[in-house]
Structure formats: structure tokens, C-alpha cells
Design goal:
alpha/beta, six-stranded antiparallel sheet, five-stranded mixed sheet, flat
């Protein structure tokens, strides 16, 4: 029986006895309740009813006597009414008792009472009638006597009925007491019996469970935890939960035995591996300082055979090549003179030759009884196992090893042999190489001795040639020494050549990585330029339109807001261009074009661009140019002017009062040489920009030339700026072959000195940078790099043409704007509508081609380059493929101003090219040219 069933049976019996006990108690209590109900509700009520009838009857009788003797008329009427009322109550009480009686005698007594009361009621009615008639008491005496006699009988019967009911009530109470006493006795008996049954059941459950648990505990105590290979099992006698525990323990014991066996196997494998590695290391140590193959063979077979448990062994080494190749025995272990094994063999001869041919090992264990090989002092012994193994180097068999043992070779010994032979081939090759070197050295020494002998013979033959011979000998010695030196240098050269080759490969790899990194950076900068210039385009166009006082409907304050927005956009554009310039310098891909420029025009150019700034800040602007400065100068004029622009912009920005001065003079080459190399320049010019501004502390003068750095945070907050200007100045100066230095004291002003060479032949050190791939370099016509005074101004031809065209060429002209950016479309639509043009829009190349196919009379197309689906290049190419659109003006617009984009756009079919953000005047000038043409 299961443990669970035992518990359920035991507790079930307990619950059964408790249920029986409770059931009997409930029945007994119910009987007691019935008896008490009988006493209280039935008997007591009946006795009470009989008492009430007797009282009503007695009262009626008194009222009759009062009415007949002493009452006046009114009192008599009242007494008669009470008598009548009591009569009705008595009848109702009798009726109630009649329905509730359940005893025969009680019914009989009540019946007699009803009969006697009825007779009494008749007499009472006659008496009441005579009293109402006014008869005197004397006349009523006979009826009164009859009424009194009947009244006595009625009362007697009622008393008898009451006494009977009280007797029944006493009997019922006595029975109830007896029932209670019986119930108490039974409860005591049932409780004692239940305790006995529960005790027996609990003892039975505990004994049966503890017996199984003791057997489990006994088995667990007998476990030897130091040796888990054999664990005792618990006998499974039951199928209950304890039996499940025994089964689980037995399963666990089996798992522990398996795990213990695996642990032993793993330990054994580790021991075997250690055994192999120790002996492999021992043999590898033995290889050291061996320079002869025979010595190697002898030491190897002598050391290997005992490790393998072999009783005899032989070692063969390959000799010759091709048809002359054979394997010769060089050493043996426990051999029997010349008869111990074969002296030599060829490929395929015998089992050892076949193993050499197949390059595989072979183990022979079924050895014939007459195979006599192992020799002792007492005789010859038949071996039990033979192993034949090849020694392979670079997929060629260079030696063979054969071992024989009186016992079978174990798997461990075979693994050890394979690992030893893996390195033996390399060792044999090295030893043979050293032997070959030694042989060549000996031959060289023999030849040297032969030459010395010939020299001595010649010396003995002719004394006249002695001086020459000595001289030749000296020369030979010098040649030998030179030859040794050359050999040494040759070896060093070869080593250096290898090192250079490795370095070259590393440099090429780094160059490829740098090129890839530069490409990624270039693509990022180009995409950044596009993403920043695209929203900036609409900002600049719309703010420029709003700030125009002639065309704007805004008030002066709102126009000022628009001018601030436009100015901020221009500042952001300048920052973008500075970052792009700096990135182009860093990757070495900024194009520098050395050409002729006129330095005599420089002062006028600087005055024209900065006089208004000086007047606005109420400071002096002074330019001095020495007479010895050459007028013609060779450099990149665009970068040269940008350096001066940045230096002067900084000077004016940080100067609140005083002056800003520019000094241009010919530089002293020796003075310049302390800052930068001066080779390759025809002459040098020194330009000093001096201001009386806030100055720079000594410790910050190196920091300001780093990107995004200014003197301190307060300077940046007060004067603004990004900290790129001076960094770009120094980088551009380096590209032009020059340098920028600073001399300043805080609170006293600053002097920036710009040294620049005149390079008629160009700067050769940056030729590679100039010719490098142009991913980052922006198009040459980008306004951000324009020289002083040239930003955004149309050329003279355009201005003349504009003056001649008085008829407003934009009126009634239709322009198709192709752009995926709704902000740009909105800005261009408003700007061009203001000029009187009709505007059509398309968001990609497909919509553009559809509009052209519909036959719209389009005069010019503004084509964005970077669009989803079909970009601007492909769209322009498809348009030009149609002959009817060959002359249609197409102006390419793009915010990704990459170097070469202009040529690429023109090649794809563009008529002109404008980079974003657009300047409205510049765009209108270009449109005016193409619409009037």
C-alpha cells in the first residue's frame, strides 16, 4: 500500500469515527430538542390553555351571581356582556385544544368537558334570559342550583384534563433526562473507541513509514564517499512515494558512478597527455647540439625504444633521389650485429618499403611463431608487436623507424610515437642542412689549402715572383676579407630587405586603411554639407526676400528680424565652409594652385573690404607696404587672401578701441628659417597684423591654433566664433609653404606674423596631395572660398546684359523646379513668383519627365542633384536624349558641393551649375543670362 494511500486510509478512518460520533450526537440532541419542544410547546401550552378556560369559566360564574343578586340595571347589562364575551373565548380555546390534542385520553376528557360545558351553557342562557326579564333572586333559585351543580362538574372535568396534561409533561421530562444520560454514556464510549482506533491507525502508519525510511537511511550511511565507483542501491519494496525516493536515489547513484568513471577517464587522459608531453620534451632537448645524422639516429633510437617499451628497433634515413633513392639503416637498438634487420631498402620493398611509399604507419600484432628477432643472453624471443612508422618532412618521407616489443604497443605509446615523429622530420632536415654547410666549409678549406700549396709551389719555382706572390696573397686575403664582409652585408641586406618588405606591406595596409577612412570621412563631410546646406538654402532665400525694404510688406522691426536671420544663416554657412576647409586640409586633399598674383593691389583690396568695419567700430585701420616687396608673387591667391581675411577679422573682432595695422615687407630668410624650411622659394614676404585688442596670455598662445579653441570660455561667450579661423590660417599657410606665429600680451594687443614664400615652380611637397582623389574638395566656384570682394557678385558681362534688358526677362516665363525638399520648393516658388515667373514643381526625376511629356511650355529647369528614385544626373541625361529638349536651359542645384560635381553636371546635360545655399541675386543673374540668351 502506498504512503499516500496509508495516510488517506488512516485519516479516513479517523474522519469516519468522528462522523459517526457527530451523527449520533446530532440524533440525540435532536431527540432532546423534540422532547423539550413537546414539553414547552405542546404540554405547557395545553396546560396553560386549560387554566385560561377555567379562569374564564370562573369569572363568568361570578358575573352571573353578581347580575342575579346585587347589580342594578346598568351593571347587570355590563355583566351580561362580559359573560357573553367569555363564552366566546372559552369556545375558541376549546376549539384550539381540540385541534392540537394527540393523546386519546386527552381527547376523551376534552370531549366530556365540551358536553358538560354545553349543558352548562344552556342553563346559563336560561338564567341570563330570566335576569334580563327582571325576575327576582327568589324566582331564580332553582336555576341557580342547577347552574351550580353543572359548574362543579365542568370544573372537575377541566381539573382532570389539566392534571392529565401535567402528568404527560412530567413523563416526557423524565424520558428526556434518560435520553441525555444515555447520550453522555455513548459519547464517552465513542470518544474512547475513537482514541483507540486513531492510535492504532497512527502507530500503523508510523511503523510502516519509518521502516522504509530506516532502510533508506541505512543504505545512505553505507556510502563510501571516497570511492564513488560503486554505490549501494536501496531495495524498492513499495510503489509509493518512498519507493519513488528509492528509485531516484538509485538513479542518482548510477549518475554519480558514471560521472566518477568519466572523471577517472579524464584524469587518466591528462596523465597520459603529461606522460607524452614530458617524453616529447625530453627527446626535443636531446636534439640540441647534434650536427650529425648518424649521431641523431643513434641517440634517437636509443632514447625512443625504452620509452616505447620496445625490445629492439632500427632507424633508416633516406639517401639519394629519384631512381637511386633508398633508405639506409644508420642506427639500431639491441640489434644482433649485421643480421639485425635489413641494411637498406627501396620504396615498396617489403612492408617497411610499402609504408614509406604510402606515407602511413603500420602496426603488426599477428606475428608468426617462427619469427625470431629479439635476442637475449639466453636465446631468441618471439616479439608480440611490431610498429613501422615514416618520418615526414614537407610531405616527403625522410626516414623510417621500426620497433618491436615483447608486449603489444598501447594506444598511448602509438600517440607518443606520432607526436615525436612530427618534429623529427624538421630536426633531420636541420641536421642535414648543418652537415651540408660543414661539408661545403671543408671543401672551401681544402680549396684554400690547395691554393696555398700552389702559391707555395709558385714561390719555390721563382724567387722573382715572390713579391708578386706575396702581393697576390695579400690581395687574396683582402679579397677574402672583403668577400666575408660582402657576405655579411649581403645577409644583413637580405634581413633588412625582408624587414623592409614587411614594413612595406604594413604601410600599404595602413595606407589602404587610411584611404578607406579618408573616403568615409569625405563621404560624411559631403553628406553633412548637403544636409546642412539644404535647409539653410530656404532660410537664406526667404530671409533675404523678407529683409528687402522695397518688396517686403513687413514693418522695419520685422525686416530687421529677417536681416538677423539672414546674417545668422550666413554665419552658419561660413562655419560649414570653415569645417569643410579644415577637413580637406586634414585629409590632404585641398587643392592648391600656385599662380602669379600682384601684391601691389593688396593694400587697396584690404582697404576696400575692411574700411567699413573700422569706421563702424571707430578704430584706425593702417596698412604699410615696404618698397622692396616684389609686385609679382607666386602663390595660391585664393588661400592667401583667405588667411589675411581670417587674421584681420579676428583683429577687428577683439579690438574695441585703438587701431588695427597691417605691415607688408620682404622677410629675412634667416629669420624665417628658425620657423620653417626655406628651400625652393625665390623670396619671402612677411605680413604682420597688429591690433590693440584684448591680447592672449602666454599659456594660451599655442592652444588658439587648434581647431575649435579660443583663449577662454568667456571670450567665446562675449565675442562669439567657432575657434576655427586661426587653425585654418596655419593649415593653409603650411600648404602654401609658409607659417603663422603670434606675439601677444594679455591686455596689450596681439601681432600675428604670416611668412609666405614665392613659389614660381609650385610647392613640390604637396604635388601628391594636389593630385589626390577629390571626394571632399568642394567645387572651385563655391562662394565660401571666394577671394575678397568677389562673393556672390555677377560678372561685368552679366551686369551689362542686365542693363540692356529693360523688359524684365522673368515675366511670363515658366520655370520647372525639381527638388525633393518642400522647404526649398516653397522658398524658390515665392522668390520666383515675386519676379513674375510661372512655377511648376516636381519632387523627383520621374515627375519631371512626366511634366515635360505633357507638353508644358517650360522655359528653364532648376534641377536638384540628390533626389530619391531618379537623381538629377540621370534625369538630365534622359532629358538630353530627347532632341526637342536639347536647347532647354537646365541649371543644376546641389548642396553636396563636391569637387568635380560641376564637370559631372555639365557632362550629364546641365547648362549651368549653382551650389546651395543659393544667393537670390546670383540665381536671378544666372536665370537672366539663360532666359535672355
Amino acid at each position: 500500500m502506498g504512503f499516500k494511500k496509508k495516510q488517506m486510509l488512516g485519516f479516513g478512518l479517523i474522519l469516519l469515527f468522528l462522523a459517526i460520533l457527530l451523527s449520533f450526537m446530532m440524533i440525540t440532541l435532536n431527540n432532546l430538542k423534540s422532547s423539550m419542544t413537546e414539553i414547552v410547546e405542546n404540554r405547557y401550552e395545553k396546560v396553560q390553555a386549560s387554566m385560561e378556560i377555567r379562569q374564564l369559566f370562573s369569572r363568568s360564574d361570578r358575573e352571573i351571581l353578581f347580575a342575579a343578586n346585587d347589580a342594578n340595571k346598568e351593571e347587570r347589562a355590563e355583566s351580561l356582556e362580559i359573560i357573553n364575551k367569555n363564552h366566546n373565548l372559552i369556545e375558541s380555546k376549546i376549539a384550539g385544544l381540540s385541534g392540537s390534542l394527540n393523546k386519546a385520553k386527552a381527547k376523551q376528557l376534552l370531549k366530556e368537558f365540551e358536553t358538560q360545558y354545553a349543558s352548562y351553557s344552556i342553563t346559563e342562557a336560561e338564567l341570563i334570559q330570566k335576569i334580563k326579564s327582571g325576575n327576582s333572586s327568589d324566582n331564580l333559585s332553582s336555576l341557580m342550583d342547577d347552574q351550580r351543580e353543572k359548574r362543579t362538574k365542568v370544573i372537575s372535568t377541566m381539573d382532570e384534563f389539566k392534571d392529565y396534561q401535567e402528568g404527560v409533561m412530567k413523563d416526557t421530562l423524565s424520558n428526556s433526562k434518560q435520553t441525555y444520560e444515555d447520550m453522555i454514556g455513548f459519547v464517552i464510549f465513542a470518544v474512547i473507541l475513537s482514541i483507540l482506533v486513531i492510535s492504532v491507525t497512527v502507530v500503523w502508519m508510523i511503523r510502516s513509514t519509518s521502516k522504509d525510511l530506516q532502510s533508506i537511511t541505512k543504505v545512505i550511511k553505507n556510502i563510501d564517499f571516497k570511492n564513488l565507483s560503486v554505490i549501494p542501491r536501496i531495495p524498492v519494496r513499495t510503489t509509493d512515494e518512498i519507493g519513488d525516493i528509492a528509485k531516484s536515489f538509485n538513479d542518482m547513484a548510477e549518475s554519480l558512478e558514471i560521472y566518477n568513471q568519466k572523471e577517472k577517464d579524464f584524469t587518466e587522459k591528462i596523465s597520459e597527455q603529461n606522460w607524452i608531453q614530458t617524453r616529447v620534451a625530453d627527446i626535443a632537448t636531446m636534439y640540441q647540439r647534434i650536427v650529425d645524422v648518424e649521431v641523431l639516429a643513434d641517440r634517437f633510437i636509443t632514447r625512443l625504444a625504452p620509452m616505447m617499451g620496445a625490445s629492439i628497433g632500427a632507424f633508416y634515413v633516406k639517401r639519394g633521389e629519384g631512381v637511386d633513392m633508398r633508405f639506409v639503416k644508420l642506427a639500431s637498438f639491441a640489434g644482433d650485429g649485421e643480421d639485425s634487420g635489413r641494411r637498406e631498402f627501396r620504396l615498396g620493398e617489403g612492408l617497411i618499403g610499402q609504408c614509406a611509399l604510402e606515407k602511413k604507419s603500420k602496426v603488426i600484432e599477428d606475428i608468426p611463431e617462427d619469427f625470431q628477432l629479439v635476442t637475449t643472453g639466453l636465446g631468441e624471443v618471439n616479439p608480440k608487436s611490431i610498429v613501422i612508422a615514416p618520418v615526414i618532412f614537407e610531405d616527403e618521407v625522410v626516414a623510417m623507424v621500426e620497433l618491436a616489443s615483447l608486449e603489444a604497443f598501447t594506444k598511448l605509446q602509438k600517440t607518443f610515437l606520432n607526436q615525436v615523429l612530427d618534429t623529427l622530420g624538421i630536426t633531420i632536415n636541420n641536421v642535414e642542412g648543418r652537415m651540408e654547410i660543414e661539408r661545403l666549409l671543408k671543401e672551401s678549406q681544402a680549396q684554400t689549402e690547395e691554393l696555398q700549396a700552389q702559391s707555395e709551389e709558385l714561390q719555390s719555382q721563382s724567387e722573382e715572383m715572390q713579391a708578386q706572390s706575396e702581393e697576390l696573397q695579400t690581395q687574396a686575403e683582402e679579397l677574402r676579407m672583403i668577400n666575408e664582409q660582402l657576405e655579411e652585408r649581403n645577409r644583413e641586406t637580405e634581413e633588412k630587405s625582408k624587414e623592409l618588405q614587411v614594413a612595406k606591406l604594413n604601410l600599404e595596409k595602413q595606407a589602404e586603411e587610411l584611404k578607406l577612412s579618408s573616403k568615409y570621412k569625405s563621404e560624411f563631410m559631403a553628406n553633412m554639407s548637403h544636409e546642412l546646406r539644404t535647409p539653410l538654402n530656404s532660410i537664406l532665400i526667404l530671409s533675404e526676400m523678407l529683409s528687402d525694404p522695397n518688396d517686403s510688406k513687413l514693418n522695419e522691426e520685422q525686416q530687421e528680424f529677417a536681416r538677423v536671420i539672414n546674417s545668422s544663416g550666413q554665419d552658419l554657412l561660413t562655419l560649414i565652409n570653415d569645417i569643410l576647409d579644415l577637413s580637406k586640409v586634414e585629409v590632404g586633399k585641398l587643392e592648391v594652385v600656385f599662380d602669379e598674383m600682384n601684391l601691389s593691389e593688396l593694400p587697396e583690396l584690404l582697404h576696400r573690404n575692411f574700411d567699413h568695419v573700422a569706421k563702424k567700430k571707430n578704430i584706425d585701420f593702417i596698412i604699410e607696404k615696404s618698397k622692396n616687396v616684389p609686385d609679382i608673387f607666386f602663390t595660391d591667391e585664393q588661400r592667401f587672401q583667405q588667411i589675411l581675411k581670417n587674421l584681420l577679422s579676428n583683429a577687428f573682432k577683439f579690438t574695441e578701441k585703438g587701431s588695427v595695422s597691417v605691415q607688408i615687407k620682404k622677410a629675412d630668410e634667416e629669420n624665417v628659417a628658425q620657423w620653417i624650411q626655406t628651400k625652393g622659394a625665390s623670396n619671402w614676404v612677411e605680413i604682420k597684423v597688429t591690433d590693440t585688442g584684448i591680447g592672449i596670455s602666454k599659456e594660451k598662445q599655442k592652444l588658439i591654433f587648434e581647431a575649435f579653441q579660443q583663449g577662454d570660455g568667456a571670450t567665446m561667450r562675449k565675442y562669439g566664433g567657432t575657434g576655427l579661423g586661426l587653425s585654418i590660417c596655419r593649415e593653409f599657410a603650411k600648404l602654401l609653404g609658409g607659417w603663422v606665429i603670434v606675439d601677444s600680451e594679455e591686455g596689450q594687443g596681439s601681432t600675428f606674423t604670416f611668412f609666405i614664400p614665392s613659389m614660381p615652380e609650385g610647392f613640390k611637397n604637396v604635388d601628391e596631395a594636389i593630385a589626390a582623389s577629390p571626394e571632399v574638395a568642394a567645387a572651385n566656384h563655391d562662394d565660401s572660398a571666394a577671394p575678397f570682394g568677389d562673393q556672390g557678385e555677377p560678372d561685368a558681362g552679366m551686369m551689362d546684359e542686365e542693363d540692356r534688358d529693360k523688359a524684365k526677362p522673368f515675366c511670363n516665363k515658366t520655370v520647372l523646379v525639381v527638388d525633393d525638399d518642400h522647404r526649398n520648393i516653397f522658398a524658390l516658388k515665392n522668390a520666383l513668383k515675386h519676379e513674375g515667373m510661372e512655377i511648376l514643381t516636381a519632387e523627383n526625376g520621374f515627375e519631371c519627365l512626366e511634366l515635360l511629356e505633357k507638353g508644358n511650355n517650360i522655359d528653364v529647369i532648376l534641377m536638384d542633384i540628390m533626389m530619391p528614385g531618379m537623381d538629377g544626373y540621370e534625369t538630365m541625361t534622359r532629358i538630353r536624349e530627347q532632341s526637342k529638349f536639347e536647347d532647354l536651359p537646365i541649371i543644376a542645384l546641389t548642396a553636396k558641393a563636391m569637387k568635380g560635381d560641376r564637370e559631372k553636371c555639365l557632362k550629364a546635360g546641365a547648362s549651368d551649375y549653382v551650389s546651395k545655399p543659393l544667393k537670390l541675386d546670383q540665381l536671378l543673374s544666372v536665370l537672366r543670362v539663360w532666359l535672355t540668351n
